Amino acid sequence: MTSQPANVPRKGPVVTEVYHLIFGMLISQEIPPGARMAVDEIARKLGVSQTPVRQALATLEAEGLVTRTHLVGYRAGELMTRRQFDDLFAVRAFLEPQAARLAAEKPAPERLAEMRSTQSEMTYEASRNGVVPYGTFARHDAELHSAIAEASRNEALRDAVSRLNAHVHLFRLYVDRAVTHDALDEHEEIVSAIEHRDPRRAAAAMRAHLRRSQKRLRSAFE
After folding, report:
1. Which of 41, 52, 109, 218 has the fewest Cβ atoms surrounding its Cβ within 10 A?
2. Domain ranges, residue 180
3. Where residue 112 sits, what CATH number does that domain have?
4. The total number of structural domains that make up the chain
């Protein structure tokens, strides 16, 4: 990690901004897999106190992106093995089409608005820059899948899905950047199906998206 200061923009709760910045550093591998993450160094780099850094790292630890060892501190999580990667997608294939199906049965207006807003933000980034920055795409992708799980109104399903998304985005660094455009088109099909209250179409669209994502991201191991 470099020590150049980079003050956190105060656009919301400081801990949220700190979380997003550290998340971006992990996704871009500015903080390499396995690297030690000193709380005081990160705080100096971001121009904040150590408290929001510790809170952000605790959240990232819960998501599997960092690990914490007694008397050692935090380290960036290692990349998944091929077996872990395939196991993850096998579980997602069980959970997320069902979440999309349930979400489409009777979608709450606020969840529909959240999905459409997230999809619109990603589309705007792609049209403005030609590609969605990976850190931004990873965050919005997780938000969209989370919103779909929330819309299922099944708490157990929602909680299970929320634990599966963040880490997989590390693999997108090794894939052609056009992957974001492919994923955007697939996301649009899912969101559209939910908006039209078509459970079968929503489940099929999610299933196809996961299958294609797994195929694209598998190149990280080749």
Report:
1. 109
2. 82-221
3. 1.20.120.530
4. 2
**Structure tokens that stand for 88 in this block:** 């993850």
**Are 136 and 65 in a shared domain?**
no
pLDDT in tens, 22-32: 988 888 788 99
pLDDT digits (tens, 9 = 90+) for 132-182: 666 777 788 888 999 999 999 999 999 998 877 655 665 554 545 556 778
Q: Do 199 and 138 belong together in one domain?
A: yes
Do 28 and 65 lie in one domain? The reply is yes
How many residues does the structure list for the chain? 222
What pTM did the predictor assign?
0.78
- Which residues lie across from 2 on neighbouring strands? none
Long-range contacts of 131-137 (CB under 8 A, 24+ apart): 131/177, 131/178, 131/180, 131/181, 132/180, 132/184, 134/27, 134/28, 134/169, 134/172, 134/173, 134/177, 134/180, 135/20, 135/23, 135/24, 135/27, 135/28, 136/24, 137/169, 137/172, 137/180, 137/183
